[in-house]
Amino acid sequence: MDCIFCKIIRGEIPCEKVYEDEFVLSFLDINPVMPGHTLVITKEHHANILEVAEGTLERLATRVQKVARGVKDGTLADGIFVSTLSGEAAGQSVFHIHFHIIPRYENDGLVNWPYKPYAPGEREEVAKKIKTALSS
Ligand code: 5GP
Ligand code: ZN
User: Fold this and answer.
1) CA triplet 2, 87, 20: central angle to 5 degrees?
2) Ligand with minimal distance to 96 CA
3) CA Rg value for the chain
4) Residues annotated as part of the active site
5) Which of 35, 81, 97, 128 has CA 20 to 30 A from 110's CA?
6) pLDDT tens, 78-119?
């Protein structure tokens, strides 16, 4: 398969490994937002969080927590940012499920999300659409 993360799992592309077990591999992102920016990926190929089976995601989540604790302690970070992107529009560039674990520090200069308030009535409307989708 032509997936770059599957190639890393097979050892065809090197990586800076920080953790591995029978289910996941964790290694440093080649292009870090902060030193210690780490990825956790499943050994099995799954596209993203929307497509992975619930049980697989639960197992993955426990590893993400374990590695996040290690990243925090190992980098002496003040906080940890965990994210996973799904779909090109969200910025996903490698279509093999992975969680980013990024050390954050007080006043580290990273820009936070551009928060903006809802227009009147918009919040209720959006919530209704999501609730309808969840109940169908
Ligand atoms: P995405 O944009 O899909 O959420 O994140 C993919 C991440 O994989 C990017 O942060 C990118 O730097 C990282 N990445 C892509 N190719 C490689 C690689 O060959 N080795 C490593 N270590 N990271 C990679
Ligand atoms: Zn893959």
Assistant:
1) 55
2) 2
3) 17
4) 98
5) 97
6) 999 999 999 999 999 999 999 999 999 999 999 888 999 999
pTM here?
A: 0.96
Which single residue is written with the structure tokens 């499920």?
A: 97
Render the burial of 106-133: b for 16+ CB within 10 Å, e for the rest.
eeeeeeeeeeeeeeeeeeeeeeeeeeee
The tokens for 49 are 């969080």
pLDDT digits (tens, 9 = 90+) for 20-56: 999 999 999 999 999 999 999 999 999 999 999 999 9
80 near 104, Cβ under 8 Å?
yes
Strand pairing category for 38-42 and 98-104: antiparallel
Nearest ligand, CA 94: 1
Instruction: Compute the distance from residue 55 Cα to the ligand 1 centre, in Å.
Output: 25
Alpha helices in 11-95 (DSSP H): 54-75
Task: Please list every protein residue whose CB sits less than 6 Å from any atom of ligand 1.
Answer: 4, 13, 15, 27-31, 85, 91-94
Instruction: Please report the atom of ligand 1 found closest to the CA of residue 4.
Output: 19
